[in-house]
Structures are given as C-alpha cells and as structure tokens.
Amino acid sequence: MTFEKNEIMTATDMVRNFSSVLSSVSKEKKRVVVVKNNRFEAVLISVEAYEKMSEAVTILERIYASTKKKSDG
Questions:
Q1: pLDDT digits (tens, 9 = 90+) for 11-42
Q2: DSSP-assigned beta bridge partners for residue 8
Q3: Contact, 44 vs 21, CB < 8 A?
Q4: Could you tell me the strand order of the sheet in which 31-36 lies?
Q5: Tens of pLDDT along 34-68?
Q6: C-alpha span between 52 and 25 (Å, rounded)
Q7: What is the Cα–Cα distance from 69 to 63, expressed in whole angstroms?
Q8: pTM for the complete prediction?
Q9: Which whole-number Å values give the CA distances from 16 to 2, 11, 51, 73, in the listed order?
C-alpha cells in the first residue's frame, strides 16, 4: 500500500496537533498514517470510511460463507 507524503505524520506531531488532524480527516483527508520509531503504527480514518469498510467486510464474509457451503455440500 502506498501513502502520500501529506497523509503521513509522526506520533509526536499527532499528539501536538490532534484536534486539527481529527478535523482534517473528517473534512479533507481520507486518512492519516501515524509513524512511530520509523514504522507505520496506525491509520486514522473518518467514521464514515470505517462504516463503509465494515459493511464491505460483512458483505464479503457472507459471500465467502455462501461459497463455502456450496463447496462443502
């Protein structure tokens, strides 16, 4: 997975600017990747993005379960 430079932020900068980062994720950016000790540690996304991903996972799990039943049957 690739990230744009403006999506990456150190944990220290995240702590110092949390309120503005949270606002930008809700309004402008899709995500912010948090780096700690030169490693990607977390991704901050909006609730809307999370809900869409969660719904997609649920749909994929249903599809997988139905195909597994067909192959087992």
A1: 999 999 999 999 999 888 789 999 999 999 99
A2: 33
A3: yes
A4: 8-10, 31-36, 39-45
A5: 999 999 999 999 999 999 999 999 999 999 988 88
A6: 15
A7: 10
A8: 0.76
A9: 25, 9, 27, 56
**β-pairing verdict for 31-36 and 39-45:** antiparallel
CATH number for the domain that contains residue 61: 3.40.1620.10
Domain count, the chain: 1
- Residue 31, judged by CB atoms within 10 A of its CB (0-12, 13-18, 19+), counts as middle
Domain extent, residue 23, equals 5-72
Q: Can you count the helices (H) and strands (E) in the chain?
A: 3, 3
Please check whether residue 52 is in contact with residue 27, taking contact to mean a CB–CB distance below 8 angstroms: no
